[in-house]
């Protein structure tokens, strides 16, 4: 690899990528190390080995519903994106870029814009766009950098959009625990993701992320293509002709149409009785929508089932790794030590104790980012964190809606190097976390000071409003 003709950031990205490819462990090993570290930390603060063991075992299967939801995010997104009409649309989008560097920025832009509507769709759609671009013989695109760009939606701005778990929860009083609603009241989107400060922060993050994509993209000489990683880029295979009489229903659209109509009927009722944003924020509804639309778009059951079969291997990392994160979350929140306090209580107490009105956004942002590395679940972590930090926001007279946005922006930072959320995308791309984290690490180096600085500066423009009860 000759980097003499590369720019400063591109050289740094290539060195970071080379280091991560050599030293960054497999995602499962990374999660297993997290379990060990958190267990040792819990016991060092007074949790007995029996308590730590029980907490790990009790939490191991706690994310099974969420694990299946995440697996279906991959399957549903893959099924829709590989439907003939959508696959043709992705191929049309893939014709736009003229250079490898331009293609990487193009993927990053589409991924980030899509994530403001749905983080799950942005992962799969971005990954399939990268694969479509990789099929172009006239385009020499670095497959690693493009994969990292496809991840920017979840790694940079997803929590600032409509699928923000914390903002959704705070806007829906029926979804909040009584203890939390008494502290925060109801915070509509106008006080969180639709604040002009929030929109400005999101816009700046998108522009800066694209600049980093541009300056860290390797030149054609140093680009590593999909074929370098053994990823064979071929178009979705055509449906083979029916060979046996028993396959008639598999090739007939009759069952797809009937099941699809039932699904559309339920979705119609769901969206008619709830606000659209609330309905789509439910992962079960989101997955149901994608599976129903995917079934109808494929038209024939055999085409739909073939797409599901191709998608299932992409879920392997999710299925085997999420239980470890369930164990980590349980060790943090259900392994009390000295003073009957858990490790989560001690972490939050430490950060809240050192905060003041002027430094609250910086302290809370740093805390959310650190804890998010060990508990990478935006909604679940918010339920653990919100009672402490939002009470502190009240005590210090910090704008409550902005406190939610501080959480949202900071919570996304560890995603840039945490393989937990990379798994669905990596499954689509056929890569390992070590292949892309060198480039996402460069994003992290810029995002940390930028995000924390903007959160602090923009927060100064807001004034405290007491909680508004429903």
Give the key terms.
globular, mainly alpha, transmembrane helix, single chain, SCFA_transpt_AtoE, membrane, Short chain fatty acid transporter
In a nutshell, what does this entry contain?
By secondary structure, the protein is mainly α.
* pLDDT < 50 runs, ≥5 residues: none
Domains counted in the coordinates: how many? 1
Spatial gap, N to C terminus = 61 Å
Please count the beta strands (DSSP E, at least 2 residues each).
0
Which secondary-structure class do the elements indicate?
A: mainly alpha
What string gives the helices and strands in order?
Answer: HHHHHHHHHHHHHHHHHHHHHHHH
**Count, helices:** 24
Largest beta-sheet characterization: none
Secondary structure: helix percent: 55-70%
The overall average pLDDT, rounded, is 84
- Gross morphology is globular
Strand-residue fraction?
Answer: under 5%
Our Rg estimate from Cα atoms comes to 23 Å
Transmembrane segments: 27-48, 60-86, 106-133, 145-167, 194-217, 248-267, 279-299, 311-332, 352-375, 444-465
Organism: Dyella jiangningensis
Protein name: Short chain fatty acid transporter
Pfam families: SCFA_trans (PF02667)
